[in-house]
Write a structure and sequence with these properties.
about 300 residues; alpha+beta; D-Maltodextrin-Binding Protein, domain 2; six-stranded mixed sheet; two-stranded antiparallel ribbon
Length: about 300
């Protein structure tokens, strides 16, 4: 192993405790039973939508997406983008989680449901690639707006840009739960070949427990430190004096943070490789020289082989 298992160090620490961290953070970076690193900060990739269209509760799936597209034909879901952009940026986690069973190492890309989904995405795309139409108003003419949440004040600002009450619905997910994707920063670990592991752990303890000056962008994975940062958040609005964040706004942020999906590098690599295969095979269908049946037959075999690889 390249990285030392930090679980025993954390268990014996009198400075850091597993329960200090947000739920899911340490589990996400426990690979093959070994805690490879401990992230310090993170950002969240969110999707916002109007309550009048999505409802009061966050979370949606592709059935809901299709329903919205039919109900509001004059609006686009994520904006006018090509097939590759729509699949990769908006629906990739849904597709992989829906049609791949990681536990059994099987997939189901040759079924009718996947074919219908690809045809639907193609029918709601402006081209085949990653193109998008410039000059689109981010908060009008589309139902779902993708944004990066780098702090509590970001969310307040985004929600204020809508012309009516809005909600962070998350990306479409296979089980309909709100999927808020994350990217971590300052994930620290110890190399297995280090000759000074105890000294390295003491530095990690100091770095991760030091509250002052740690957060310049993003959220802290330490629950108490995050709560303190939220309490100190100041909201700046155009034409208004700075004000403290309200209790309702803090609760909105905590709801998103609590549902954040802390992706491991392994999961993202797996997802990206499969999406690349889908885009590769779908090119023939989109260009008109392959049938959908041909596409999914080859795709099913390619993904099956990938899942069988010992290193995957």
């Amino acid at each position: 192993m390249v990285l030392e298992d930090l679980a025993p160090y954390l268990e014996d620490s009198a400075v850091l405790y597993r329960e200090d961290y947000l739920e899911g953070v340490l589990d996400a970076y426990t690979i093959n039973g070994r805690l490879s690193c401990i992230p310090s900060t993170f950002i969240i990739y969110i999707v916002l939508g109007r309550v009048s269209q999505f409802g009061e509760e966050p979370g949606w799936d592709m059935e809901k997406a299709m329903e919205l597209a039919e109900r509001y034909p004059d609006d686009s879901l994520f904006g006018r983008m090509g097939f590759a952009a729509n699949l990769d940026f908006c629906y990739s986690y849904y597709v992989v989680d829906r049609f791949v069973d990681w536990d059994s190492g099987t997939c189901s890309f040759d079924g009718e449901e996947f074919c219908r989904l690809m045809e639907w995405i193609a029918g709601h795309s402006a081209g085949a690639g990653y193109e998008s139409e410039e000059g689109q108003d981010e908060f009008s003419g589309r139902m779902a707006v993708r944004e990066t949440l780098g702090g509590a004040d970001y969310l307040v600002g985004y929600l204020g840009c809508f012309d009516e009450k809005a909600i962070a619905v998350g990306y479409p997910s296979a089980d309909g739960r709100p999927l808020h994707r994350t990217q971590v920063f300052d994930a620290v670990g110890i190399t297995s070949k280090s000759r000074h592991k105890e000294g390295a752990w003491e530095f990690l303890e100091y770095f991760l427990s030091e509250k002052e000056g740690r957060q310049s962008y993003g959220f802290l994975t330490d629950k108490d430190a995050l709560e303190q940062a939220l309490e100190e958040t100041v909201i700046y609005s155009d034409g208004d004096f700075p004000r403290p964040i309200s209790q309702e706004e803090k609760e909105q942020v905590w709801e998103i943070v609590s549902a954040a999906d802390f992706d491991t590098a392994v999961r993202k690599v797996r997802k990206d490789r499969i999406i690349d295969m889908i885009l590769d095979e779908m090119e023939g269908y989109l260009e008109g020289y392959k049938s959908m049946e041909e596409v999914v037959s080859v795709l099913q075999n390619r993904v099956e082989l990938l899942l069988q690889e010992e290193s995957f």
